[in-house]
Structures are given as C-alpha cells and as structure tokens.
Design goal:
heterodimer, A: alpha+beta, 8 helices, about 55% helix, about 15% strand, B: about 250 residues
Amino acid sequence: MMAIRPMKSKSTSRLNPLKSKPMNRRFLSQIFASLTLGLSCLFVLPVHAADEAPDALIKRLSLDILDKIKTDKSIKSGDVLQIVALVDARIMPNVNFQRMTASAVGPAWRQATLEQQKRLQEEFKTLLVRTYAGALSQVGDQTIVVKPLRASPEDKEVVVRTEVIGHGDPVQLDYKMEKTPGDGGGWKIYNLNVLGVWLMETYRSQFAQEISAKGVAGLITTLTERNKSNAKKG
Amino acid sequence: MNFKKTRVYKNLSNLGLLMALLLLTACASGPSANPRDPLEPFNRGVFKFNDAVDRAVLKPVATVYVEIAPRLVRQGVTNFFENLEDAWSFVNNGLQFKGEAATESLFRFGVNSTLGLGGVLDVASEMRLDKHSKDFGHTLGFWGVGPGPYLVLPIFGPSTVRDGMARIVDSQGDIAGNIAHVPTRNSVAFVRGVDKRAGLLKATAMLDEIALDRYTFSRDSYLQSRRSAIYDGNPPDEIEVDKPTEPLEK
C-alpha cells in the first residue's frame, strides 16, 4: 500500500483552530508559493509526463496539491482564483478534456460542429475547475492514501483509487485514467469519482436535459452564463 | 410509561408517513424521463418546498450558528452526534456481517464516549480507527433490497422508497431521537438539525455554482453515492458512461 501520510505529530489535535498569521507574512508566503508553483511547473512536469505509472502520477499530484493547500494560506481561506490557478497549472495537463466533455455531452457530441465542441470544452473546463476548487477549499488536515493498483502492465485504462482521510468517514476519490501515446502523452484522467459519484455521469443527464430543450447551442449558452455568474461571486 | 407512550405516537406518525409514501408510489406517474425517478413531478414539488423552507429558516439559522459559535464548539457538537451514529453503524455493519467495520465502529464509540468525553472529542480518528457510517438503508441494500423509485422527503431531502422506509428503523436505533424527556429530545433534535445544516453550507453553496439543474444533480449524485456505499465504494458497472459513442440511456 502506498500510503502518503506526511509526517504528522500525534499531538496535533483535530480540534486545533487554525493559527492566523499576520497579514504581511501571509502575503509574502503567497508570493513565494506562486513563485515556487511557477518554477516547479517549468521543471517538474515535462520530466515526469511520459513513463510515469498511473498510480504514481496520482500520488505525486495529490501530494503536490495537498502540500500546496497546507502551505498556502490563501488557498486555505478559500481564495478561488488561487485554487483555479493551481488546478489549471497542475491538474489540467494530466486530464483528457475532449473525452471528458464528449462523455458528458453524450450522443449529441458527434452532431456538434468543431467550433461547438471547442466551446463546450472551454466552458465545461471552467465549470469543472470550479468544482474541484470548491472541493479543495474544504480540505483541512487530511492525508491521502493511494490504494494498490489492480491492473496489469498492458492495460490501457485503469481506475486509481484514493481515499482522503481526515475527520469523519474517509472520502473516496477515484480517477479513471487512459494511456495516451506520443509526445506530451502518458496517463490522462478522463473521469473523477467523489464519494461514489462519477462526475461525468452526473453531468450527463443535466446536459441531456439542456440539449433536448435548447440544443447544443443552448447548452453552450447555459454553461457560459453559469460560468459568468460564478466568476462574479469571486 | 411516558417513554412508552411517546414511542407509540412516534411509531404511529411514522406509519402515517409510510402509508402516504406508498400511496404516492402507487398513484403518481410523471412523464418519466428517468426510469429511476417515476415520481419526478411530485419530487420536484417537494424539492421546491424544501428549498423554500431552507431559504427561509434552515440556512439562515445555520449561517448565524456558524458566525457566532466558535469552531471548537461546533466541531465538538458535530463529533458528539457522529459518535452516537457510530453506535448505530456498529449495529448495521454487524447486520451485514462486516466484522472489521463493526468492530472499529464499536471501538470508536467506546473510545470517544469515554476518552473523548462523551463523544465531544474524536479521539478514535486520531488513533486511526476508521469511521464506517452505515444505516439501515445500506443494510437492506446489502441484502438485495432494491432502492425503488427516487423519493424526495420533506425536510430530509433526497431518498428512495427503500431508504425512506429504512429511516423508520433508523429512528428506533437513534440514541438522541429516543430520549424519554420530550423537551430535552426536542432541543437535542434542534441542535442536531442546525449542526447538520451548518456542515452542508459549503456543499450547498458549491451545488449552486456547479449544477445546471440542482434537482437532477442532487438526484443523480444521491442515487450513485448510495449505490456505491452499499458496495463499499466498489459497485459493479451499471452502465458504461464514459464511451461517448454509446447511445444515451432512456
């Protein structure tokens, strides 16, 4: 079992309130964090992308994100913009959006024009990043355990199972991944399961509802409007 | 005497609820867009009602509670109720012959009730005793009882006919809900309700942002997550949803 439990002293109580830092230190740590983030993206990502095992990839990503949440207080305090930037930089390069969007849209995907497919991907991506951001902002002193991978080496598609362990029931967080060939290839996430709920399936009937009422163009409009009103909330 | 009497009344009112549910199941039929939700028109009505109650009362009260009560206190309250639920999880894991989960639930309850000062502190989690929440709906599902039509219960929200009926059994196994002293029981129920709603504030705010249709979103995620929980997070594939070429289920 690949347990990612950062060294954690037993004495830290789950009841400890967060210690607040003075503003200027927080600001500095923000700058430092974004610098580190930017730099590590430049150096770390290309090296790992090609031949990394799917569970190792998820482990690295999870550790990375968890670490970031713990060190960056702006993420902790729910600064959505910061989280969106983090997710965009770290998670998104490892996701196959086209497949995600296509499976959420369903059969109508093939009838959509290329331009519509592009727009759908953009808007759905914005919405999904938001979803993930919402989940991340609720992370506290949790640890993530990557469960043993049940797959053979020649598998092109795998499910990587993880658990977020903190207060209360462990939160199930699974990823469906596919192996993509070529440069910039490697394992890509194409579906996400939170607490037993596969996100693409959950969006599928909502999208179908929208498409049957207003067509693909209507779905794009709805998504765009939703993203706009979300952005206003900050 | 008093204790018994209130129990009988409670059972009667539960029975009334059950009858109403069964009648609805028998009569109502909508333009069934989703085979798992034949009661959609009725459900949407209850959903709307719940939403109105939530906006007017539950959410504002929970928001004020979060603002005035310190984090420590709120965590203690949450822990207290979750500890009581562990006792019921022990019973249900036992009914499903899940030895390890039952044992851990029992240990959690024992440790938190004593070392955790009556459940206010979650010492068991620090000791890496995992939580395994299971209610009677899970137990029925585990033994092969299908969920039946999706059902939105007034106030309680998403459920199914099976899970709604299982609630009656759950209420019997619920320690806090069976306190004999009525005023105490009601106050405890109030605090518990506020605690539950407060715990969901962030989730519902998120739902507002990410769902195109909150009714469909909460229905689909409820049905999926219940099914998943019955299989302990490992449900067999129901329909292949990830292949875009596959026709949409009607």
